[in-house]
Amino acid sequence: AQSVAQPEDQVNVAEGNPLTVKCTYSVSGNPYLFWYVQYPNRGLQFLLKYITGDNLVKGSYGFEAEFNKSQTSFHLKKPSALVSDSALYFCAVTPGGSYIPTFGRGTSLIVHP
Amino acid sequence: KAGVTQTPRYLIKTRGQQVTLSCSPISGHRSVSWYQQTPGQGLQFLFEYFSETQRNKGNFPGRFSGRQFSNSRSEMNVSTLELGDSALYLCASSPGQGHSTDTQYFGPGTRLTVL
Question: Is the pLDDT of residue B1 over 80?
Answer without folding.
Answer: no
